Amino acid sequence: MLRRLPGIGPAGPKIANAAVGVLGRLDGDAALAQLARLSARLTYKGTRNEVDKALDARAAALGIGRDEIEELAVPDYGLTDVGRHEVTVGGCRVELLAGVGAAAVTWHNDAGRVVKSPPATVRRDHPQVVADVKALAKDVTGMLAAQSARLDRLFLARRSWSLSVWRERYLDHPLVGALARRLVWLVDGVACGWADGALRTVDDTPVSADADAVVQLWHPIGRPVPEVVAWREWLERHRVVQPFKQAHREVYLLTPAEESTGIYSNRFAGHVLRQHQYHALAAARGWADKLRLMVDDTCPPTTRVLPQWGLRAEYWVEGVGDDYGVDTTDSGSYLRLVTDQVRFYPVDAPGNVAHATGGGYTAGRWGAREQRAPAEPLPLDEVPPVVFSEVLRDVDLFVGVASVGNDPTWSDGGPQGRFRDYWSSYSFGELSATAQTRRDLLARLLPRLAVGSQASIDGRFLVVRGELRTYKIHLGSGNILMSPNDSYLCIVPDRSSTRSGGGHDGFLPFEGDNVLAVILSKAMLLARDTEITDVTITRQIGIATPS
Q1: How far is CA 258 from CA 148, 302, 381, in A?
Q2: Nearest CA to 182 among 100, 84, 72, 105?
Q3: CA–CA distance, 107 with 346 (Å, rounded to integer)
Q4: Helices 385-402 + 433-445 axis angle, to 10
Q5: Which ranges of 216-274 would DSSP assign to H, the alpha helix?
Q6: Which residues pair with 137 in a beta bridge?
Q7: Residue 185's beta-bridge partner residues?
Q8: DSSP string, 459-506
Q9: Are 71 and 58 in contact (CB under 8 A)?
Q10: In what order do the strands lie in the sheet with 190-195?
Q11: Angle at CA 386, nearest 5°, toward 380 and 387?
Q12: Measuring CA to CA, which residue among 390, 399, 481 is closest to residue 432?
């Protein structure tokens, strides 16, 4: 019911809210587990608020905190081991393994050999078992995605546990353990990861600690650079794929420009973003955002409330364009936004608003009889480093995903060519922190990839030497220039196949970087440029395609 329909929005939010109300009234772990899953996955604010109310009420009834109830609500789905479930039926065996992003099902016939689908005898004699395994894989896959999102939020949650509680809820939990065993943790201040059946330090020494030792999630900010590099090498050595970037997580420190401005960051100002993509992504990352319409209305900035830190982060954005129907959808919402400052305020400070069509932010509501006195933004050097880094990482993600500069079809600059200069500067310009992480990882992994013998890193580009041309793939946008005169090559990726890790046969130590997947798939394609048959590509390269 919350699937968005073009020009309409969610299909049936009232029905969704009613369903959440029913879940909130049902007793038992199953309903609680679904509420916890929805809490991690929903982005529609109205229904998300209903989920929050239901979870808060359940937590109050049990006399525990909201964080604890989300931890206790995760079902084990009957898994027989951490991340594993096995059933023997009709002399055959089926194994379910909970991976980083999905549950994989493997069937073995009565001779023990792996087969692609359930054996015919099992399908005939035990159809319910086959259906149950399929349903279990679907449920586990959905919950893995929800728990991965929840674990990613722990960086700003200020959570800690005793070792005994943490082992029960995380490390040894049948489902959560499949993710927790891929992360780096601090046990009484000692960084450790799971390998070969034990918690180990970066040099593989087993870790022993008392049951009341304090456990926290490790974050690279503030850690010595050699330690961070060592953990990256440890992941590669043990072939550990993390559910999200942790050891490779981007760290954002104050720049000289931000030290100069003092109270705001312009690091991600001046970008042009696709509004609806930005809006969905902001909601998924826990930010509140209001769609800008070309109407006489006011809008707050995109905000993220951080109650554990007593802070509120703001990203100032405005609708761009004044041509109704060209710069807006049929319903009047802006197609594109332009970005401005990032600021931090005390959590209870008066909010800022701006007119929907732009014109700058002020405190209070426009047209109100009384306006609260504007609050002063916090000096950036007073914002805790981990908060500053995580907020700017989100903003970098918004720009990196939603910028029109990522669109390979926008080389003409969009409507009336208005954004041609921005598209060119973004598509082939300086790398963001995320793109720099991408570059550093590729530099390490290229020798192991199938395309490695034909590729190299050159500044902002992955250079691929095909048989017909040499191609420069920008490590930020994924857009391509061709030798000898840097002519532009437009390749529109198949978004259904750009899941991180797809399009290549190499090991990647984390999930979630779809741009990296696009870059690798383009590199694999262009390394075999004589085999390309798509005429929209061959015409640009200059290949004569047989009729």
Answers
A1: 32, 20, 9
A2: 100
A3: 55
A4: 80
A5: 225-237, 256-261
A6: none
A7: 192, 217
A8: TTEEEEE-SS-EEEEETTT--EEETTTTEEE-----GGG--TTTTSSS
A9: no
A10: 161-162, 214-217, 185-187, 190-195, 198-200
A11: 55
A12: 399
For tokens 């099992």, what's the residue? 122
What's residue 33's pLDDT? 86
Angle at 41 between CA 35 and CA 44, to 5 degrees: 95
User: Do 83 and 177 touch, CB atoms closer than 8 A?
Assistant: yes
pLDDT at 8: 74
Extract the tokens encoding 280: 């969905």
Cα(416)–Cα(210) distance, integer angstroms: 67
Total residue count of the chain as it appears in this document: 547
Label residue 369 by pLDDT band (50, 70, 90): very low
Amino acid (one-letter) located at 353: V
Tokens representing residue 358 in the block: 């732009």
Distance of CA 169 to the CA centre of its chain: 23
- CA angle 57-62-68, nearest 5°? 85
Q: Give the H/E segment covering residue 455.
A: strand 455-458
CB 358 within 8 A of CB 297: no
Q: How many helices (H) and strands (E) does the chain have?
A: 16, 23
Q: Which of 351, 349, 355, 376 is nearest to 364 (CA)?
A: 351
Q: Which two tokens stand for residue 386?
A: 């981990």
Q: Which residues of 441-465 are buried (b: 16+ CB within 10 A; e: fewer)?
A: bbeebbeebebeebbeeeebbbbbb
Dig out the tokens for 278 from the structure.
């930005």
The residue with tokens 């789905």 is 77
Contact 147, 36 (CB under 8 A): no
| Averaged pLDDT score across all residues of the chain | 90
Determine the residue type at 139.
D
Q: Identify the pLDDT of residue 98.
A: 94
Question: In Å, how far from its chain's centre is CA 125?
Answer: 42
Q: Cα–Cα distance between 532 and 520 in angstroms, integer?
A: 16
Cα 42 from chain centroid (whole Å): 14
Does the pLDDT of residue 302 top 90, yes or no?
yes
Is the pTM higher than 0.90? The answer reads no
Answer yes or no: is pLDDT of 207 > 90: yes
Contacts of 205 (CB under 8 A, 6+ apart): none
Structure-token pair, residue 181 = 């065993």
The set of residues, in sequence order, having a beta carbon less than 8 Å from that of 180 and lying 6+ positions away, is 151, 170, 171, 173, 194
d(CA 84, CA 99): 9
The reported pLDDT for the residue numbered 21 is 93
**CA 52 to mean position of chain CA atoms:** 22
